[in-house]
Amino acid sequence: MKVVVASQNPVKVNAVLKSFRQCWPNKIEGKAISVASGVPDQPMGEEETRQGAVNRARAARELVPSADFYVGVEGGVQQIGERLFAFAWIAVSNHETVSLSRTGAFELPPQLSRLVMEGMELGDADDLIFKTKNSKQQNGAVGLLTRDLVTRQSLYEQAVLLALIPFLNEQLYPQSQNQLS
Questions:
Q1: What is the pLDDT of residues 64-123, one digit of tens each?
Q2: E strands along the chain, which residues?
Q3: pTM, rounded to two decimals
Q4: Contact 155/103 with Cβ under 8 angstroms?
Q5: Using an 8 Å Cβ cutoff, are 88 and 123 in contact?
Q6: pLDDT value at residue 181
Q7: Cα angle at 51 between 47 and 53, to 5 degrees?
Q8: Domain boundaries, the chain
Q9: Adjacent-strand bridge partners of 79
Q10: Quick one: what percent of the chain has pLDDT higher than 70?
Q11: How far is 21 from 137, CA to CA, in rounded Å?
């Protein structure tokens, strides 16, 4: 089974492939490709973030039409009142349907929130505040804030598994339910 991950970020690739291998052991061939999300580098809000994940899966399907599955992962933030929360949307597609899932959300501290709201991408803000380098390809904000009790990869893994539910239970989900057009 060939799975195309619509990112070359090792955190996203590893999360996707680990989740697929939990469902289909020894049957997964992974391919990572770089595609545009079609949304800003730092998506703001649920809709923009979800659309980025769907756009990534769609672009992967167009570039590698011979695969069995395409996965888009898009991290974003949502302001609720004075607070800013981070999360990600996952889009898993085959050639007929797309399944969506979302990670849990976590509140960003005021220092990070301020930088992101001023236009900085969350990963860059993490690196500035925590004095790290390229944290978005490592443990991410969630890892830095939880002392790696939850990492960016582990946060994504559960959401990928949840997005695979319709493919694990095809008899319960009509293929026409969600088209990836």
A1: 999 999 999 999 999 999 999 999 999 999 988 899 999 999 999 999 999 999 999 999
A2: 2-5, 29-32, 69-80, 83-93, 98-102, 106-107
A3: 0.92
A4: yes
A5: no
A6: 46
A7: 125
A8: 2-105+150-177
A9: 84
A10: 96
A11: 21
CA gap 100, 46 in Å, rounded: 12
pLDDT band at 177 (very low <50, low <70, confident <90, very high): low
The residues, any chain, with a CB within 8 Å of residue 82's CB and separated by 6 or more, are none
Distance CA 172, CA 24 (A): 19
- For 2-105+150-177, CATH gives 3.90.950.10
CB of 93 closer than 8 Å to CB of 180? yes
Question: Please, are residues 99 and 92 in contact by the beta-carbon 8 Å criterion?
Answer: yes
> What does the pLDDT read at residue 138?
85
What one-letter code names the amino acid at 151? Answer: T
Using alpha carbons, list the distances in angstroms from residue 133 to 12, 66, 127, 129, 167. Answer: 17, 36, 5, 11, 37
DSSP 164: T
